[in-house]
Records
---
Amino acid sequence: MIAHNFKHALFCAVVTMVVAYPILGLNLVARGTRVGLEGADTTTLVAIFVAAVVVFAFQLYRDTLMAALGKLPKLNPLAHREPMPQAKRVKMESWILTGIIVLALFWPFFVSRGSVDLATLVLIYVMLALGLNVVVGLAGLLDLGYVAFYAVGAYTFALLSQYMGISFWMALPLGALLAALFGLVLGFPVLRLRGDYLAIVTLGFGEIIRILLNNWTAVTGGPNGIGGIPEPTLFGMEFGRRVKEEGNTSFHETFGIAYSGEHKVIFLYLIALVLAVITALVIRRLMRMPVGRAWEALREDEIAARSLGLSRTAVKLSAFTIGAFFAGFAGTVFASKQGFISPESFVFLESAIILAIVVLGGMGSQLGVVLAAIAVTILPELAREFSDYRMLVFGAAMVLMMVWRPQGLMPMRRAHIELKRQE
Amino acid sequence: MQDLLYFSQQLINGLTIGSTYALIAIGYTMVYGIIGMINFAHGEIYMIGAYTALIAITGLATLGVAWLPLILLVALLCAIIVSSSMGWAVERVAYRPVRGRHRLIPLISAIGMSIFLQNYVHLAQGSRNIGFPALIDGSFRFGSSEGFQLSLSYMQITIFITTLICMIVLSLFISRSRIGRACRAVSQDLGMANLLGIDTNRIISATFIIGAALAAVAGLLLGMYYGSVDPLFGFIAGLKAFTAAVLGGIGSIPGAMLGGLILGVAESMTSGYLSGEYKDVVAFSLLILILLFKPTGLLGKPEVEKI
């Protein structure tokens, strides 16, 4: 056994070296038109060697280590406790949520402009993640092109304001509805496909939308994007120093306070907050309605659900359309916050980030998804010097979550009865 | 005559690209055929193959080696070794622990792996694209000197010949060798093959290694053909190759070859007659249309869903 383990461990260590050394240890550098090669510094080389040794040791004592790990007492002392009664749990959750919302309402008045701006971005991601949560978490449809609907929302607002001078409040429902329409049109033919094919088709659709936005220069401005997107107004009051549009008044003059750039940022934050709360509440209600139950039923067992008379297409299509609708919502807010959009903001990586949020938070769980959105957006900002490693860590986290805790950090829990296995 | 020459040029370009798509597509199709998952990180393995080949070529140039066949051979071997190790490691780390769970779980794990590998190379080698030396120069030219000239470069010929050799070796390997036979058995019925004494874990590892090796060959060839590599280079190529695999019928090796060629030709015809910018749109639209109307692809077997 030891001899076999030793061979295997040695093999794993060699593979580690082979995989790591050429890419990490030898760096290509452009010298004028020619390409040169430079060895990495000693730290990297030592790190590669240490990694190989660690892999070797782990594989050699794998059985012993795993046995020892299995014997450790459970880290979570609450693992065996009875789940809270449904009524109590719901009550507690809604108290916590109300607390968070009240806190979020007053918080921006006491912090810096940068943090409020970041918080707006977090809320946009919360909206996106809640929307995707319906599609992936509840209905079990893996959508890798979710960012396309986000783009539709953002571009609807940008184009309508550019060509027709439509304001934010008009564009908000229009963008969301148009995104939902796109979802409906795409969903109708593709939802018959099996899970992984669906994932690839949505990915292809996302790329098609991005390429079209990039190349249809006459309308979308191509890679240069669209700028000068207006900010939202409060009952015709603008937040700029000067009024841009006829008939509008400015916020600071109406209330007789000094002009401050922060008003606009805080206003946008509050809009995003209200919209995020609306998104969460609407989806929360939908989850308890028959359509929400149908999503989950279809996710758990398609054949059983269909044999009980659920229409597969209608149920899936509703999830897909509602998900797209909220992405359109988020897109409009995003366009208004940035004031400028380009296809750069709607790449596949963005879809992957939103998916990572849903997966990390626990598919189907709203609170988990909200917390994950906050963590995923804020952590890279806090650790700026490590921002290069952000996506690397994301990728690794997605793999590790799938291996160890596919249900996510805060899985959705429902009161349920389990059949006891016969001993 | 001119039109014919132009058409033939597009055909040649399409077949060149298509044959490398076919090489990558085999990796997707074999893995799908055996464990029924989309190996999303396959495009990244191909990208790593291209990078390794470039590192090997640059290294040899620094050492002063100038004999072309030796350079190509060493670059090819290095790329194959590193990519295969990567393929093996990825399967061990990210796919084996989640095998047999719900369909979406291995797929999400694979997407995570793909993002991880992309950024791994990005951090180690920088995000800019790096020039790949054109080792094989020159071309045959046909047609009058004033009109359109059909050119068939030596590089394109190299790509055709290499791909052809790879395909023949692979077909022989799958149909004649012990491991090849085991591969076919496992793809027909994994559980039964296991009962009959085939070490299915080893066969699955072998599939990943074969796919990664072919992707590495494609990485070297396409790197030289395009003249540059960057960390995102694998993503689109991977998607295209996956499209090719679906087009031909996923799970079928001849299907992957055929699908690659068709996709390559369709793409180069689009860029030749319409616009180069929309060639990716054509590829993805083709994918969507096939999945809608003939999900089993051209040469695939229909999948019966058992309750």
---
Amino acid sequence: MCEESSLSRRKVMKWVVLGIGAATTGVLGVPAVLSTFSPTIKHDDKKRWRPLGAKERFAEGKVISAKVETRLDKDFMHMTLPKDVYVWNKGQDEFVVYSRSCTDLGCPVKFDSGSECFFCPCHGGIFSKEGDVMNGPPKGPLHRYSYRLIDGYLEIDLSSVPVVA
Amino acid sequence: MLNKIFYFFIHRFGLDVAADKILFRKVAKTSWYQGDGATMVTLLAVQLLTGAVLTLSYSNSIDTAYQSIEFITYHKTMGWFIRGLHYWSAGLFVVMLVFHLLRHLLIAGYKTPREGTWWTGVGLFFLVIIMSYSGYVLRWDERAVYAVKILLNILSNIPYLGDELILFVQGGSEINSHTLTRFFSVHVILVPGIMLLLVGYHLFLVIHQGTTSKIERRIPVETKEEHAEIYEAAKESSSEGEEFFPTTMASSGIMSFVVLLFGIILTLTLGPAELYPEANLTETSFPQEEWWFWWYSALIAILPPKSVPYFVVWFPIALFFFLISLPLLDRGPKRDMSQRPLWVIFVSLSVMGLIGLSALRMRSPWTGWPSQKLPPFPKEFVVTPGLEKGREVFVQYGCNSCHAVAGIGPSVGPDITNFERLLTREDIIKVILHPSPKIAMPSYQGRMTDEELKYVSEFVFVLQIQPRRK
């Protein structure tokens, strides 16, 4: 009788110890995990239009690089790195705005005005002026940003290309 | 009296027990190259020390990180030495790690009863890889920011989770101040913390299970009981056993000393890793990975393009599962290299592959790059004004972005002095205007004037035959 009750006492104790342990882990662990993964949980899917400059800056037929500010809305604590994009003015207010990220592994492509190709410095990716893969491992054409013209100013939507571009 | 005080502290800190269990234990004899473990412990200590000193001046904010590295390198007393040694001992650590891994494949270090030792080692292997990647991101130069981009691009190939992982690693939808802070946290706190625990556990198991000894490579041992019997007998015998301190420590210490000395010499001669321009996404950049990743980069370049997105995701995962399952798949008593010819071949091929691919990456024959530099004419070449003009057109239209002239320049397209067969002027013009869609060459139809076409085709035509005549 006495043995039995001490056994069940032990059992209860065991569950109490485990329970308190699990609760403590949970109280600390859940906020830690949520905080760690917060950039994934809370991020802006909204369109982010940023100006590239007056459309006259981009001579017709030429592929010209332009700098774009990438600052995120509201997040004043987030300093971001501005980036360069390539703008091809096809004429009659038609533009192509390329991301500089190679579609293989994201190295910065360089436009060669001589051959009119984009060269990737890493693994031999070469893209045509149309952005199509001509050589190397890239898995697809260069990413194109959505653009719009407002009062003669060219703007692009940063959210219109994959996050990785 | 002094003696008494001495033993008081020894006893109260339990140092007598620790010394008995660690220093004055008997072990079965091993080969000289098993000093690689001690070498890594030494290098780890160097990493911890130099790393700790670096954190005293390093700033993990993206607007000051680069300047703080410049300060450490150029202004801080002995800063260049600390940073240099941190860099070189990190590189040597990766080399020793690969050596340690391959060496254990050769002598079956993962076999009974050392499976646990192996598994903790596999964990450490991947943590070291993370360290060797996150470390150079902290420099926050161009190489660093593109290392981040490449990692993100690799992650983007992971099905379903790709975009989430990018947001997670990057800390937002653009590369931002949190990105560097996260890499700092991973490199300086999270991974070193886990690594230290795991190294401690790995070493506990090394002491507990012993290391693969000479005798068990001669006498077949299969079960843990057989192993215990032979190992226990060996370590007490005078011919097969030795005292860990000082005998084993002296022999394994030699390798540690030599490797560390090498690291110091590299630091003194080559100095810390080159600093590239500050991290930016706007300048033209020609980024490269650190040299211990060259072989991997070369693989990505030469594999069939379609397989690359799968390779970059599945190769590390497959490697992990291969290493984890190895002790379960390869059992049995054979431990000596002479009984493991397949492994000898595998390891030899791996070493040759690593070196060969790294050498290939150094040359990177797949990369074309625009250049305004006129290619030199071959020696003893009669240069006419027409050829001079042709060479200018050759550069003006970026032919030299892909084609070399007499071995100088990129090798994406064929060297114009070394075509498979001699081309006529008409052939050359045809290729320039209508290149085969199978080759990576743009058409110059409508771009070159007839005159330019005449000059450049003459240039290519004459150069392709000239060196052959000699």
